Amino acid sequence: MLEPNQFEVKEKTLSLKINLAISLLAYLINASYSPALAIDSRQAEITSIELQLKKDIDADKTSELEPVKRQLDALIATKGEAQLYLLRADVKYRMYDLKGALSDYDQAISLQPKSTKAYMQRGTANCVGENYEAALNDFNTAISLGETSADAYRNRAGAEEQLGKKEEAIADLTKALSLEKDKERQWQEKLMRGRCYFATKQFEQAIKDTSAVIAVAQLPEDAAVDAYKVRGSSLFFSAKYPEAVTDLTAALKGLDGKSKAGCLVLRSMSYLKLNDKAKAEADMEEAKSLGFPQRKTQ
User: Fold this and answer.
1) pTM for this model (two decimals)
2) Contact at 8 Å (CB) between 201 and 237?
């Protein structure tokens, strides 16, 4: 037979077990709808999207981009955040929706006005849209906010080059070269700087930079053509006519239209300096057929 105190102990033990069970059930129920877990789930989805976008997905793979865009649309509809607008801008940019991308970059910047990443990406989009003044302003802002990457200075130099600010571009490209950690990418800065040196009639410097570019193994074909064109033109203006002919001939293999006509004219003039009148006349005739403007006679 149970004594009263034994019954009381057992009753308290049972009550404690029931309370613990209720508490555990309440915890599990609450945990299922916990705001913290909801936030974690949302962040996990965002992280998943970021990982997807690290892949080489472009507009040729719209079937892969459309679902990502729909995910971002839904997340932004719930709560618009700078990070989400940046991700969606990236998707739109890859899908060649430049106007949509710029709109999302604007939204991201309005929410996070000190985001160097947003200014860098909007600057790149503005360059693609040939709005170089806006691009320059974006890169200036990114750098003023503390962006110190080689990309920042190279991209700003690209805008400066297009705006005719060649000396400023040379300074930025020199800075970018000092910051570029990947030595295999330095040919990009050197090719751009070579063009700017040529434009400012610093021909020896242009020859030096483009020679370094041409020496790079597995150089993209369009970059090689550009390098030969710049070096060949610089050699012509340095009165090194045989070398100019060689480089301009290499460049002509990848040129057409006005660019080809300009190279033909320089090669024609080089041939004249070398007393090869027949080749000079042939090049000039071909340049005229491509629309090279003839001087008006008085």
Assistant:
1) 0.80
2) yes
Could you read off the pLDDT of 104-139 as tens digits, one per residue?
999 999 999 999 999 999 999 999 999 999 999 999
Q: Return the CATH fold of 182-293.
A: 1.25.40
C-alpha dist (Å) from residue 213 to 191, 219, 248: 6, 8, 16
Q: Are 251 and 263 in contact (CB under 8 A)?
A: yes
pLDDT tens-place string over residues 209-232: 999 999 999 999 999 999 999 999
Tokens, residue 68? 């990502």
Domain ranges of the chain: 182-293
Q: Give the containing element (helix H, strand E) for 247.
A: helix 241-252
Query: CB neighbours (10 Å) of residue 285?
Result: 12
Per-residue 3-state assignment (H helix, E strand, C coil) for 112-177: CCCCHHHHHHHHHHHHHCCCHHHHHHHHHHHHHCCCCCHHHHHHHHHHHHHCCCHHHHHHHHHHHH
Q: How far is CA 235 from CA 85, 103, 227, 244, in A?
A: 49, 46, 12, 5
110 Cβ contact partners less than 8 Å away, ≥ 6 residues apart: none
* Cβ neighbours around 132 below 10 Å, total: 19
pLDDT of residue 46: 81
Q: What residues contact 236, with CB distance under 8 A and at least 6 apart?
A: 244, 248, 266, 269, 270
Q: Are the C-beta atoms of residues 234 and 207 closer than 8 Å to each other?
A: yes
Spatial distance between the Cα atoms of 33 and 258, rounded to a whole number of angstroms: 66
Give me the amino acid identity at 31: A
Average pLDDT over residues 255-260: 94
Cβ-contact 98, 110 below 8 angstroms: no
Helix (H) or strand (E) holding 97: none
